[in-house]
Amino acid sequence: MVSFVFAATRRLPFRAVLAIAIASALVSIAEAQRPGTPELFPKDTAALVRIPSAPELKARFMNTAMGQMSQDDQLGPLLAELYGSATELFKEHIEEQVGVTLDELLSLPQGEVAFGVITPEGVRPMFVWLIDAGEKKDAANKLLEKAKEALDKEGYAKTTEKVEELDMELTVYDIREDAIPRLVLFERDATFVATTDVDLAKSLLARWTNPTGKPLPDSLAKNERYAAIMKRCRGEGGQQPHVTFFVDPMTILNSAAVGNVEMTLTLALLPQLGLDGFSGLGGSITFDAAPYDYISHFHVLLENPRTGVLKALALSSGDITPPAWVPADANSFMCGHWDFRTTYEQVAKMVDTFQGEGRTEKAVQGFLDNNWEGMDFHTDILDQFAGRVVHITWMEPPARLTSQIQCLAVEVKDPEALQKWLDKLAEKYKENIESKTVGRITYYEPKGPPRARAERRRVRPDGTEEQPEVVEDQEFPMPCLALVDNYLMVTRAAFLKKIVLAKDDPSAEKLADSLEYKLVAGRFERVAPGMKPGMITYSQPEEAMRWVYDFVTGPQAKEFLENPDAPDPVVRLRDALEKHPLPPFEVIKKYLAPTGGVMINEPTGFHFTGFGLRRTQSE
Question: What is the rounded CA–CA span in Å between residue 334 and residue 599?
Fold first, then answer.
C-alpha cells in the first residue's frame, strides 16, 4: 500500500503534499454528526488506516508507560529541550510552506483521521483522505489554503462542481498524471476531504447524508472481509481501538493491473501458487486497556481449504515452555511449532508444477550427494525435525553496536545421529571450520581472517596530539553451530557459553522460573481462551533499554556526538544532553514492564494478539 501512496503523491508539488500529509496525521474527531469512515467509505475500499478519535488516542497514550515516562520530573526537562529544538527546525524548514507553527499543528487534533484506497472493479485505485477538524476548522482551512496556493502556483487547471441537492461545491484540480489524474477537495461539518475522483466524492456525500442512520449496503461496513477481520480485532472489554487498519492486497493488485498487460499476466499465476486465497489482513491497537498497558491484534484472513503457499505456512501447536537452557536475562524469547514436512511437500509441489514432477526431490538429494555423500534428505534431515522452533535475543555487555546476539534453535528427534553428521562435515571442511568446546558441548565456528591493526590518533583541544592508540578492526561476529540437549542451534560463541551455563548449573537463573515470564505466560490463556497457541513471544524492554542507556552514555556514542562535523540535529541532541543529562537508569526502569504475544492458527487464518503489562510505580 505504501507504494500506491507514494505514486499518488509524488507528482504533486512538495508544499501541497506536505500540507495534506501533516493535516492528515494530526487532525481528529469533532462534534459534527456524521457517519464514521466504515459507514462513509464505499464497500470496495481495499485499504483503510483509521484513528477514530485523536484526542482519545492522545489521552490514553499518556496513561501508558511511555506516556508517563514523558511526564517524569527527571526526564521532562530533556524531552522539553528536544521538543524546543524540533520547534526551531520546523520553523526554519517547514513553517513557511504550510503556514502554521508546530504548536498550532499539535493543537489541531479534534476529530477522526482516515486514509483509504478505493478499488472499483475495472478501475485503477483511487484515494481518499479524511480529516475531522472540529473547532479547529479555521486552522485547518488555513493549511488547506496553503495547499491550494501551491497547486495554483504549479499551474494545475482548477474547476468547481456543484452538488445541487446539498448546496455544496467541490474544488477540482486536474493533475493529469496516471497515479492521480484529479484532486477533489471539499469540506462539510468541519471535516475536510481530499479524493482523486469526482464520483467518489459524490458517493461519500450520499452516504454522509444518509437519512436512515444505518450503514448502507454499499458501505465498507458491509464488506465481508473487512467485517471478518475487525470482528477479531476488537478492543479490550468492548473498548474501541484507538488505531485500526485493513488491507486487501489481492484486490489492490488486481485494480493496479488494469491496463497493464505484464502485471495482469503475472497475477494470473497467483491461483497456481494458492495466493488467491489470501483474503486480507488488518489489525488494531488499544492503549491504556486495563489490565494491559496496551493490547494489539493482527489478523491474516485466509480462505479454506488452503493451498500452495498458504498451506505451506504450516503453523502447528505444542509445548511453549522455555527450555531449561534459556537464561533469565534473555532480552526476548519466541517459541513456535511448525510442520516442516507439510511445508516441504507444498513447496516441492509448487516447484514441480513449473519444472516437472519430481524435479525438486532430485535437485535436493542431488545437492546432498555432491556435497555430503551418504546423507539422505528425508531420513537425515527432514525426519529429524521435531517441530519446535525457539528464537532468543540477548544483549552482550558492554553496550556496543554488535551487542545483540540472536539464537535460532530447532528441536531434533535424534541428536546423537545428527552429532555424528556434524562431526563428519566438520572433518571434511576442517580448513574452513574450527571445532571448539564449551563445557561438554562441541560447537563449530567458521574460520575468519585475522584482524588488521592500526593506530588511532586523537587531538587535544590545545592542538597537541595524544599518545597514539593501537586498535584492531571491528570483527564481524561469526555464528557457530552446536547441539545442546536435543536442539540444533545457531548463535555466537559468547551466548552459547551462557546457554551451556544455564543448562549445566542448577543455581543459574532460568527464564522459565522467572517471575517476569510467569506473569506474561499467565496472560496467554486470557487473550486466547480455549485456543492452542502455535507461537508465543516474550520480551523484556528493560534489557533492551538498558543497552540503549549504556550505549548512549558510553564512549562510542560520546565520540559520535562530539564529532565537530556532526549535522545540526546531532548538535542539538548533544546540547540537550549537556544541559539535561540522563537520570539514573532506575528512573527509566520503573516504567518498563514485560510484553508478550500469542499466535493462533485459526480456521479463518492467523491471529496474533500482543500485549504489554503494567508496572506499578512502587515496583
Answer: 11
Cell of 458: 586523537
Amino acid at 22: I
Q: What is the pLDDT of residue 469?
A: 57
Distance, CA of 616 to CA of 619 (rounded, Å)? 6
Please give the pLDDT value at position 26: 44
Q: Which three cell numbers stand for residue 517?
A: 515470564
Residues 175-193 pLDDT 10s? 776 667 789 999 998 899 9
What distances in angstroms separate CA 190 from CA 116, 203, 402, one per listed residue?
19, 18, 51
Count CB neighbours of 41 within 10 A: 27
* Residue 449: predicted pLDDT: 61
Are 526 and 355 in contact by the 8 Å Cβ rule? The answer is no
- What gap in Å lies between CA 537 and CA 37, rounded to an integer? 33
CA distance 238 to 245: 18
Please give the backbone phi and psi of residue 288, each rounded to the nearest 5 degrees, phi first: 50, 50
DSSP-derived letter for residue 164 is: G
b (16+ CB within 10 A) / e for 296-332: bbbbbbbeeebbbbbbbbbbbbeebebbebbbbebbb
Report which of residues 109 and 268 the model is more confident about.
Answer: 268
Helix, strand, or coil (residue 41): coil
